[in-house]
Design brief:
Elements lengths: L5 E4 L11 H7 L3 E4 L1 H11 L5 E3 L3 H13 L8 E6 L4 H16 L5 E5 L3 E5 L6 E4 L7 H13 L2 E7 L2 H5 L8 E6 L7 H4 L2 H9 L7 E7 L3 H9 L3 E6 L9 E9 L2 E8 L5 E6 L9 H7 L23 H4 L7 E4 L14 E3 L2
Parallel strand pairs: 1-2, 2-3, 3-16, 4-8, 4-9, 5-8, 9-10, 10-11, 11-12
Antiparallel strand pairs: 1-15, 5-6, 6-7, 12-13, 13-14
Length: about 350
């Protein structure tokens, strides 16, 4: 938290973000976004010395607010490739990032990665700048900060893990995916979702037409078929299960190839057959290849902006791109610092 920051106070499992308003105000917070309970806490602690924007659902507002601060738009940000599913997200995003790098590095365009293990950006995976990741999918202010950081680093495309928690908690609000993929659904996270049906419904929200342009769905079981049926817009399906299928892509003729496997991809609509291989063992690595073939994608131009002598935007720093992701409080950091408010700051209520 620094002078001029917007403090987003979210109700957490054990505390409310507004419980920390005195600390935030002392560090320089210029305004607060919170709910009715948070407004009461802010006014009790500070009176009217800080402006408060009251919203009904703070997490719904956090993404758009962060997007406004960091300048996130569907056309200016890197092309996002999201991956969701109970298993395989991390492996798939590393595959995707490697594939994207092989396409873009010859054009001197960088790629990015957001996931469970790390957040990275660079011309190649080997030469990337990295920071450790605190969670599979960061909070909304951190994600929008990363989009700004990626723009300054000439990142044309990024692979990103999208957890069901991030969908349910609106962490991806304000982001737009060129492609989103579904790996599988097995029993997990029922402490949050309650039932498998609700777990599936949470994942399915990623594949709305307003959020994702093209959906790539693995239909190896009934959950995959249900996800494909609920996905909106352009939908591409694939299966790794042998036998007759209505999926667009299928995997067959599997054989050993060193430590990994060789296999044939078949486009069931056109009859196109591709013999290929992967060095990683296990059937879980197969779907990434048909995803590579079926995700027709054209990189967008990288927006230009003021840069320093190194070619980077002068204010870009990893530490500033990733604000606090505590479940009790979120900080949305603005590059345009504002002055501290007067002693009679208002409360603004929005729907």
């Amino acid at each position: 938290m620094r002078v001029g920051d917007l403090f987003i106070a979210v109700r957490g499992a054990r505390a409310h973000g507004a419980d920390f308003i005195e600390e935030a105000y002392g560090a320089g917070a210029a305004a607060v976004v919170t709910d009715a309970a948070g407004v009461a806490k802010v006014r009790e602690a500070l009176g009217y010395s800080i402006p408060v924007i009251e919203v009904n659902r703070v997490r719904d507002a956090a993404g758009p607010a962060a997007g406004a601060v960091y300048g996130t738009t569907p056309t200016s940000d890197p092309s996002l490739f999201g991956v969701t599913g109970t298993n395989g997200k991390t492996t798939t995003t590393y595959f995707l990032r490697s594939l994207l790098s092989s396409l873009l590095a010859p054009q001197s365009r960088s790629t990015g990665l957001i996931g469970t293990i790390e957040i990275a950006a660079g011309l190649t995976p080997e030469t990337s700048e990295r920071i450790a990741s605190d969670m599979t999918t960061p909070e909304a202010p951190a994600l929008h900060g990363l989009m700004h950081r990626f723009r300054t680093e000439n990142v044309a495309a990024a692979a990103m893990e999208v957890s069901s928690h991030s969908i349910s908690y609106r962490r991806i609000a304000g982001l737009h995916f060129d492609v989103a993929g579904f790996t599988n659904l097995t029993q997990d996270h029922l402490d949050l979702h309650g039932t498998m049906e609700e777990y599936c419904a949470a994942k399915a929200k990623l594949f709305s037409q307003a959020r994702t342009r093209t959906s790539v769905i693995t239909v190896d079981d009934s959950w995959g078929h249900r996800m494909a049926a609920e996905a909106e817009g352009r939908v591409i399906t694939l299966t790794t299960v042998s036998g007759p299928t209505e999926a667009h892509w299928s995997v067959g003729d599997v054989s050993s190839a060193g430590l990994g496997s060789a296999f044939t991809l078949e486009n069931t609509l056109t009859g196109e057959r591709i013999r290929t291989s992967t060095a990683l063992p296990g059937r879980s690595t197969y779907p990434t290849r048909p995803w590579q073939r079926s995700w027709f994608w054209k990189p967008r131009p990288i927006p230009s902006g003021p840069r320093d002598s190194t070619g980077r935007t002068s204010s870009a720093r990893w530490s500033r791109a990733v604000p606090s992701t505590s479940p009790s409080r979120d900080v949305c950091r603005s590059s345009a610092r504002s002055k501290r408010p007067s002693s009679t700051s208002p409360t603004i209520r929005t729907p």
